Amino acid sequence: MNAQTWRFDNANALYYGLIDSLALTIQMIIEEGRDPVLGLPTGNTMVPLYRLAAEREQELQTGRWVCFNVDEYYPVLPDLKALSFKDYMDRHFYSRLNFSVNRKECLNGAATDPALECVNYEKKIKESGGLDLLILGIGTNGHIGFNEPGSEFDSRTRLINLHPQTLLANFKGNAPFQQAMTLGIGTILEAKKIFVVAHGKNKARAVKDSIQEIQTRTVPASALQKHPDVTWFLDQEASSLL
Ligand code: GLP
Fold first, then answer.
1. Which residues line ligand 1 (CB under 6 A)?
2. In the prediction, which pLDDT does 2 show?
């Protein structure tokens, strides 16, 4: 297993550790003379990360970032825009920056042909040179992006049916979406470097199953065991079963 597991005393320490590692990675890429191509997630876990990143905009050289979002709900009808991940990124990150990032890309939740949208998204990632760093959260059922249990490890970016556990975690009551588009697990595994972030005890089982148990499609994040450069950023609770 190639994964590094970093445990922090609490969520606060975790985010500072994460942002420092992010800064270091960005610096290394920029020193190579390139603009960093990043895969960026959504979810509650990432809200403090984006706040801190915006606060350290200058040091992180966010103006050079080429940003690809990991996933998006589908279909995002006009009255559901506020729930989209595009809106999430504007609200939590892009709108907080003084200077815009170099490029913002996200899967178009209003696309009429989602399959074509997914194929084109993969092309855009390839044309940009591939993801230098992909940051991921993890679902309580072990999903990464929206690759729900059962996803093939060589899956590409595609439309997927959301798992009832995901709908419950994300919407509590009535879910306005049943489907989403997501980078595939195969696509994820092509990123040069991956950070996975989890805090809270509701993630502990998924974290353990992903890192220490045998790889299985039932736990999509266990696919990351195949990747040569993965770092897990965990607080005490999320790492409590390791
Ligand atoms: C969401 C997203 C994932 C995210 C995960 C965890 O549904 N599709 O990209 O990482 O589930 O979300 P949270 O951070 O809110 O627990």
1. 41-45, 70-71, 137-139, 145-146, 166, 170
2. 66
